[in-house]
Design a protein that fits this description.
single chain; Glutaredoxin; 2 domains; alpha+beta
């Protein structure tokens, strides 16, 4: 990967996630530590801020759902590790909720710049609310970007991980508003012969609209909680 592209924050879907090593609230971590697992890497503008606090609580409450999908959470901001720890402790004291995932202390902003988490037109000292979904082979599969004043909708992040894993496992695609358990879209035919066969199948099974849009039930193995079985 071109170093200048990485430093300019041009991380794109489908590319290998940029490597990093960092100090966190749970000790040193690197991207390599997450090989074989899916990773949701997300940034927040700053500790002890109201919207970020609600997000941390929401991520903590959803952590079990991510774990069931073989997915780890990893936060990041350019605050210091002592600041992160104090904030975590304050959340715990006020709510009883213990953040079960690490938060990176990116004081130099090196990781934030590498991943394009700083939008200079918005702020040069705070990271916007970015989310990178990185698969178990460490490729970037989805990117969300939210402004400083809008909190993330955690169920959509969960749904996106589920949809990506389902698409991989079933060799299909997911439709608009797809939810777990629903049929997946079958890849469109690539020859006229298979096009005709697909239309015959749709006429018989009523499982689609036309040759380029038909559905199938996901394989049983893809409905398991543990994605490593897929």
């Amino acid at each position: 990967m071109d170093y200048e592209l990485m430093m300019n924050g041009n991380v794109k879907i489908g590319q290998k996630a940029p490597e990093f090593e960092a100090i966190t609230t749970y000790g040193p971590v690197s991207l390599n530590d997450y090989k074989g697992k899916w990773l949701v890497l997300f940034s927040h503008p700053g500790d002890f801020t109201p919207v970020c606090t609600t997000e941390m609580i929401a991520f903590a409450r959803a952590n079990t759902y991510f774990e069931q999908m073989n997915t780890e959470l990893l936060g990041l901001s350019i605050d210091s590790n002592p600041s992160h720890l104090a904030w975590m402790y304050d959340i715990y004291c006020k709510t009883g909720i213990k953040l079960p995932f690490p938060i990176i202390a990116d004081r130099s902003g090196q990781i934030a710049r590498k991943y394009g988490m700083i939008s200079n037109d918005v702020s040069t000292t705070e990271t916007v609310r970015t989310v990178f979904i990185i698969d178990d082979k460490q490729f970037v599969r989805a990117i969300f970007i939210y402004p400083l004043n809008i909190g993330r909708f955690i169920p959509e992040i969960i749904r996106t991980v589920q949809a990506l894993q389902m698409a991989d496992c079933s060799k299909g695609s997911t439709a608009a508003n797809w939810m777990p358990g629903q049929p997946v879209i079958v890849p469109a035919p690539q020859t006229f012969e298979t096009l005709q066969s697909r239309n015959e199948e749709i006429d018989k099974n009523r499982n689609g609209i036309t040759w380029y849009l038909s559905f199938k039930e996901p394989p049983e193995k893809c409905l398991d909680d543990k994605t490593e079985d897929c």
